[in-house]
Amino acid sequence: MAKVEWIRLSTDMFNNPKIKYIRTLPEGNNILLIWVMLLTKAGICNSHGYIMLTENVPYTSKMLADELGFDENIVQFALATFSKLDMISIENNELLIVGWEEHQNVEGLDKIRERGRLRTQKCRERKKQIAIKNEAIPCNVTGNATVTHGNALEEEKEKENIYIEQIHLLWSLYPNKKGKAIAFKKLPKLIERYGFEQIKRCVERYALEQKGKDKQYIAHGSTFFNNTYVDYLDENYGQGSSHPEQPRASNIDPETGEVLEESYGFNKNSR
Q1: Which of 63, 113, 252, 271 has the fewest CB atoms within 10 Å, measured from its CB?
Q2: Model confidence, pTM
Q3: What is the rounded distance in angstroms from the CA atom of residue 191 to the CA atom of residue 184?
């Protein structure tokens, strides 16, 4: 995907307690500069806040140090600081800017995606015209089959790419980045069953309820997308109250992040 040409920074960012804290650290101003450089890097990658060299090659601290022009020790200290302050998440060596939507040039990104959609639409029209022309030639049975099969493969690949993009967006919105591998296995089926927009609303509803809480009391992503999401579906959310009963902190395992079923006021057999 093409890069976003600019990102948004709050004019109040230097009053942010995290930014103030960073500036008190050794090399604090350099660490803050690295933070801004990471935000711009995320804009260049344009992958919902993920910073990757390629789709399959994540950055190492050495690679970032070389590219950003800092000593590797400073970059490692900066990344550790950002992680401690929940500004970034690193899982399976993948670096994610937490809350990327706050910094993203949404309008610019939408335009880029629209251009991509139009290119895909034109490509489909061209292939459709080719298929029609080939069908007009009775003797070219093999050729028609090849074109049809090629179109099917292309559509399947495009569908897969859309799923990947939607999954990464949902993950960037979820407030606890633990359990990514399991969550990524669950999400395609949830999107296919309920639709992307409804699953996105589930995540947003849950994230809003958990805002300000310590992460040890927020369900891991694997837990949420396995069963907890059910309470935040359109058909279940808000029944009998303004929102579902929120899990009590005492009913979340701080070691695993698993939410105990009884914390929602029901048991597994009641559904």
Answers
A1: 271
A2: 0.48
A3: 11
